[in-house]
Protein 1
Amino acid sequence: MEDGWLYVASASSFLFLLFLFKLQRSNKRNSPPSPPSLPIIGHLLLINEPVHRTLQSLSNRYGPVLSLSFGSRAVVVISSPSVAEECFTRNDIVLANRPCLLCAKIMFYGGMTIGFAPYGPQWRNLRRLTALKILSPHGLACSLTGRLEEVRLLVKSLYEVATAAAGGGGFTRVEMRSRLEEMSFNIIMRMISGKRCFGATVDAGDTEVTRRLVELIKETFELSGMDPVDFLPMLRRVVDFKGRERRMVDVAKRSDVILQGMIDELRSRRKRSDSGREVESKTMIDSMLLEGYSDDVIKGQILSMLSAGTDTSAVTMEWAMSLLLNHPDVMKKAQAELDDVVGRDRLANEADIHKLPCLQNIINEVLRLFPPAPLLAPHESTEDCMIGGFNVPRGTMILVNAWAIQRDPKVWDDPTSFIPKRYEGLEDDHAYRLLPFGMGRRSCPGAGLANRMVSLALAALIQCFEWEPIGEEPVDLSEGTGITMPKREPLEALCKVRGCMIANVLTQL
């Protein structure tokens, strides 16, 4: 027994001396400030859910450039707009890489997708396809009809429910989350494969397959992000944390079957329609088949589009409606702007968006308070560099806490309040203070699409209906769990048709 305690004491002393040695070396290297850490696991025990709030608390104590050790991985957390600007300008190429994460290897086809691929030829090819073709201004103009139709169908379904339940003259209770999710999914799927997946006109078999895919994407979101094995790889052979790796493999297999079916169906459709002749590319899958991409690369791109483009937009719209319900004066102002600019005889279209500053200010403020990615996708330094005056070695993971930057009282007046008018006259002055889609070459290429989707849907909902919260209490703004920071409780609200929109708009849908 005494020998056992002697071994424990010796090991503890060795680990303590190792910690002091690492701390001394860290100070000599001019590393960013760091909390005390434990041997081997580093600061992992300090990281609790929600991670963006935990990191904000640590940054408030240790500074806007914070050094952490996640097991064997060195991490630097950025919570300052000026340092974020430095990362995405002077150090943009150095930080253009992505860390290799277990979720990317298993569920995103070896990490060779536009979101997870390391900086190099594969990523540049996918970026060219995505940013310069599918999501370019021309590409988005080609898919405009689908977006307008899906917004029209959303409005039509609400009009029918409100008319049937209240005789068209009163408020009726509606649940919004599922409606917004289905609209977002239909828009993205029409761009990917040319098919709607939800709605009365969709085949029951297609709807069932889509529902399974939606559930798989939700599981993918739940399992995505950083895993303990990413930082303590030696544990992968010893323990599977809560069965996560087995679940990742299962989700990957099930989603692969559905995604392969989508490709095979479109490939078969092309063969039947062109009779051996080359046909015009109308969808993302068409474009990628025409350019000779492998099925695995196409499936990875489909999964990336669905993961990044559906839940994020739906979550943003749900937060927007929740905030507007709690601020009816802002809702009335946006409604008056729409009546003045668009009128009451048609729905707003994308050509109107830049003429609606009040609506854009609302969306900016929603994205500031509830960014769909509170922690931007992690970057990794490919060589030694300086960030915020500190030395950052090669291979360091860089986390930009957008949520903390966008709620920093040193950066924003009254940062926790919903004040859309704060953007009046700012123009681009808020570029690195407001970064929900990231910045630099690894920023989200879907920012333009997201703005169009959210703007069109939000404009139509404000134009066509009156809204009130259920009961006298404000809408609950508690955050749920997940990397897109959803509302904890799905939004339900009272909806009433605006009489002035019935004759020329709603009855014509």
Note: The CA atoms of residues 113 and 300 lie 5 Å apart.
Protein 2
Amino acid sequence: MSKPVDVAVGVLIKPNGDVLLGQRPAGKPYDGYWEFPGGKVDPGETILDALKREFVEELGLTIHSAEEWCGVEYVYPHAHVRLHFYISRDWSGEPQSLEGQAFAWQGTVAVEPLLPATIPLLEWLEQVRYI
């Protein structure tokens, strides 16, 4: 098995409990699938720094603070990933589609298909969404 690739993933939660999901753009593995936004951690970069960088690059959002939530390791046919999930309720800006991806604020998550590693998190998310 290949060494996992570290990925920083952000769960933005609005005061009403809605969370932001993004749709993978055309040309990427699992294009059209929905996921929590994020991206690969560069060498020498902390996970939180990677998360902040990815949100600026992909969505034009500035994350001011985020707390580590959980980690999930998942083996896809194209990649072995170690996902580091952070929850943020403190950011500025409105999401923009800087990489041509769709995004949606979701209360009850109704978009599909969901990326397989995202599915189990939705149940866990219900425990922290309104804290």
Note: The mean pLDDT is 93.
Protein 3
Amino acid sequence: MNTLDINQIKEYLPHRYPLLLVDRVLDYELGKSIVAIKNVTANEEYFNGHFPHKPVMPGVLMIEALAQSAALLAFLTMGRKPDSTSVVYFVGIDAARFKRPVGPGDQLRMEVEIIRSSRGIYKFKSRGLVDGEVALEAELMCTMRSSTDASQPAGQ
């Protein structure tokens, strides 16, 4: 079994609190798939406003957690760690569906698999589960670029 703890994850992802949304990698298979977790706690800042009377993890952050898991899989598969100018960008999000809310005390299990990789663009099939029940699913497309690359789309 291939695992990563939080310190190893930080070697591959540039994100930091409050936007680092992967706490542990339970297993991965290079070029195939990854299983990671996000422990959702009542201390998450976004619960103060989303929503005070019924805390719900924002869907956009659940998608981001899946994307971070996908980025980890891509870096691991390529056999390299990002440098100080590496940035992973979304190219597309398709078929996103939210099946159940995720809140404090939940553990979001993220399962991501590579559908294909071509010319630096990866397509992933992903889903997030809580207690074995699907909370969300989506197809994600991502690419890696240098932050100094002038050919990037504006605004990203």
Note: The first strand starts at residue 24 and ends at 29.
